[in-house]
Structure prediction request, 518 residues.
Amino acid sequence: MKKRKEPYILVTNDDGIDSPGIFALVHALKKLGKVVVAAPDRQQSAVGHALTVSKPLRAISFHRNGEMFGYAINGTPSDSVKLAVSTLLEEKPDLVVSGINHGQNTSINILYSGTVSAATEGMLIGIPSIAVSLASYSLGADCSAAADISVEVSKKVIKNGLPKDTLLNINIPALPKNKIKGIRITRQSDSQWNDHYEKRIDPFGRNYYWFSGEYKVIDKDIETDDAALLAGYVSITPIQFKFTNNDAIAKMKFLEKRK
Amino acid sequence: MKKRKEPYILVTNDDGIDSPGIFALVHALKKLGKVVVAAPDRQQSAVGHALTVSKPLRAISFHRNGEMFGYAINGTPSDSVKLAVSTLLEEKPDLVVSGINHGQNTSINILYSGTVSAATEGMLIGIPSIAVSLASYSLGADCSAAADISVEVSKKVIKNGLPKDTLLNINIPALPKNKIKGIRITRQSDSQWNDHYEKRIDPFGRNYYWFSGEYKVIDKDIETDDAALLAGYVSITPIQFKFTNNDAIAKMKFLEKRK
Prediction:
């Protein structure tokens, strides 16, 4: 009988390889199998799906508590997954887990999220992939419930796989585990940022602008990511990157022309 | 009778404010109305939907041929549109046009495209927005046909508007105008990158990795962006950013839990 090997899991993030979130995640996932880490060497929030194409990448061994923790990459979350799977790792992982991000990635934030982009690269390579975010921007937030839930979902995903071209976007409320009400499969909500730029003047009299904004949850439907999270549930949204607005195709036919 | 004012058009790109593509576009769009430019101060390809949130932005007046050409922003295409509309411009534009990009943005490239991301920001702010890319990576490519087509489509979009939460992703073959076969409304194709990293060794004996890859057009259906482009048509895909895979929701219900 062929011996079933233990799962091989690639972990990455966008907060950087030295963040508390990735440490908690790696520690917890070791219960499930062999874990390898490849993550940006510094904070990469809001980089979206950026790829580094105009400068070379490097992968440095990063140590934590005297042990090799993983590869620190001088690039984006997407770079980290691409470089790891194509070049650094000896075999294709069974699962990519990106996180635990410090801050939620719901609604339109998916577009800007480095955490989700890393899982997207895993999915595009054909590996079941999940993105995990904790709804707290504090680097001191307790990641233990989020880590436990990541293990629980990872185990089921390794066993059952995921639908084609689809990854799981998981958002976890910043609550102690016994206060979390459960897990819901949700839709992406239509919440929005009300953003603006604060204009300031530097010591030389020149203008500069700081990005700022408030996040507005509009959609109160419990079947959406933001509402489920606010109600104390873990939100899991199956997401894909199919951009065509099929309903709009017929409406735009008036632009067509043939010679 | 109220006098109808001329359209106010914001132009941006991801190749940088000094690229030939944006110059050709601005020159052509001046036939339609008042044009204002806010674009990255340097090349920003493959930045995706990245936003600059950890450092301040600046907007410098950029001159071309002795005239004020536009605002050069030390950020991404998304930053440029957000900062321009919220802060730099006196009124909300009637249209955002991003381009003319040197290189096509079809299929999965939409995810990584700074050109598309700029139009996405316009769309998210509620402005009809289009992204224009020319299927040639050469900075010396003739942009005149692409500029003419941009004007033609822009005029119709200003008149008719666009479907809600939708932008137009326009790709133009690198052909003289009389060789272009027409305009097709298309779907995003499923083409893919076969990417890899070339490993090299620096003068100090350390490894570094260059991203590289070939683009593979799999989908030959003329109703898709890549195939239409290859056949000599302008491809216009109405795109949106709704990530939920609705078909997968039922399949993932086994992950749900309630207390």
In short: The helical segments of chain A are 20-29, 77-88, 109-112, 114-125, 144-160, 225-230, 246-251. The domain at 8-189+220-241 of chain A is CATH 3.40.1210.10 (Stationary-phase Survival Protein Sure Homolog; Chain: A,). The CA atoms of residues 2 and 168 of chain A lie 30 Å apart.
